Every structure is written in structure tokens, then in C-alpha cells.
Amino acid sequence: MKVELSVSEARRAALTAQGFNAMRRYEGVGAAQLRKGVDRLGLLQIDSVNILVRAQCVPFFSGLGLYEPALLDALTGAKPKRLFEYRGHEASLLSIDCQPLLRWRMARVLRGRGVWRQLEPFAGEKRGEAEALQSEMAFYG
Question: Would the pLDDT of 82 be above 60?
Fold first, then answer.
């Protein structure tokens, strides 16, 4: 069955699929809603630049309503782990269920064949430079 949508209808369908239709707002958003949100979106891009709030906090606020941003950070350190940080597309938070699917890429990097090979020295002999830069960036954050 062929269905045709107008641009407006397609936009509305896409936003609804991502949870941005404002039809459901939750009181007391918890870890379960945040985990489901990451599952629904596929990943949550991390952006440490913050003017009002870090960029990865915005999609959930838009889709779920008011929640405590520290809860998102807690999910990455929870036991059992539910989210992990990885360079999927950019630095991102992904569901731990995706981690086995990415192990081949992780192994490739460990063998020195990944696209981030040029950064390897900053994990070893240039570690001090990386930490100094990180400290400098934290000063401005």
C-alpha cells in the first residue's frame, strides 16, 4: 500500500518518532525514560560546550520535560552499565546493547588500524600534553 505524505506530515511523523511531539510530558523523569530515549534515538551526541546546559541534555528535555541532568551522567557510571561513551559518529552516549556490535571497531583501533591512530601518542608519550589541554579547556568550561 502506497501512502503519500505532505512535507508537513513527514516532518511531524519524524519529530514524533524521536519523541519531540510534546504529547507526553512526565513528572519525575527517571533513568528508565532516559534509557528508552537513547534506545529510541540510537545515540545521544555529546557536546561539552554549554551556554545554558550541555547539548546532550536538550533532546530529553524537549521530549520528556523537566528532569535532573545529573541523572544522565549517572547512567554512564551505573552498575550494571546502561550507557557507554564511544565515538560512534561523534562522541556519543550509546545503549550498552550496541557495544558488542562495535567491538570490531574497538579491536581495529587497538591494532593501530583505526582512523584515530594519529591520536595514539596522546594516550602514551604525549599524555602530558593531552592532560594540559584538557585542563585548559576545563578552565573555560
Answer: yes
